[in-house]
Amino acid sequence: MGRIQEVGWVTAGLVIWAGTCYCIHKLTKGRAQGVRKLSRNGSRVKMETVVGDLVNEEESLARAVELEKLICMIEMTEDPSIHEIANNALYNSPDYPFSHEVIRNAGRISIIESLLNNPYPSVRQKALNALNNISVAAENHRKVKTYLNQVCEDTVTYPLNSNVQLAGLRLIKHLTVISEYQHMVTNYISEFLRLLTVGSGETKDHILGMLLNFSKNPSMTKDLLIANAPTSLINIFNKKETKENILNALSLFENINYHFKRRAKVFTQDKFSKNSLYFIFQRPKACAKKLRVLAAEYSDPEVKERVELLLSKL
């Protein structure tokens, strides 16, 4: 091991040791037992042992204090490797739901913000899941929505069908049940439509749920119609798709078509690009052909009925 690397490990260990002592003193006011001695291998300090000790000292400190120490550790350093270890300890502990409660009560959403920028996908995924859980409480909506644009920006660039992308889509779908949040993500609708044509079944499920939220809101109709839509979008009406995804896609098209027809005079062709979703509804022959093939090949009577209903309205 080089001298510089050796010094780096020792320095990191000292930082963690000092931070741990400070956290314990602050949270227990000097009454809690000290953290066990650092495990050393030569001159190297094992950071995993330090953070692991923070989780396993339940005999000396209460659970809330243990979790607070981990949170404090995350706050005190920007080192991504320490964040990953501490974050895994925090979210993989048996008290996982309790961990969220501590974060909410402590007002530590800022911690999650730092984790969203962490270079490790596994850490970002857990931060997104934490935001999703926190957003269940109405009082946290305003705090969570400040990260919505960043979440959208990151989600559309994450590796296709990856766990971190699915976590981002799940959060966006959850938040966009509220109309206020729908208008915050309009710039990403084109990217969501693109992902709908190339994603896995689970990816499509989240995106269809999100778009279905949009389509129920008349004020979102224009934002949907002006979005760029791949010509392959209508391939969602395919017998190989899951029944749930097909039914959601049918509902999506029914809603958009309904609002489109009601305001046809307002939506004139010169306002839309040739690649926009508008022309799928303005010139529905290709879509209708795809629907007829689906009706002929799909045996489920519910799907057949819904297809015929949509065809009658296009």
UniProtKB/TrEMBL annotation:
It holds the Pfam family Arm_2. Coiled coil: none annotated. It comes from the Eukaryota. Residues 65-282 form the Armadillo repeat-containing domain. This is Armadillo repeat-containing domain-containing protein. It comes from Panthera leo (Lion).
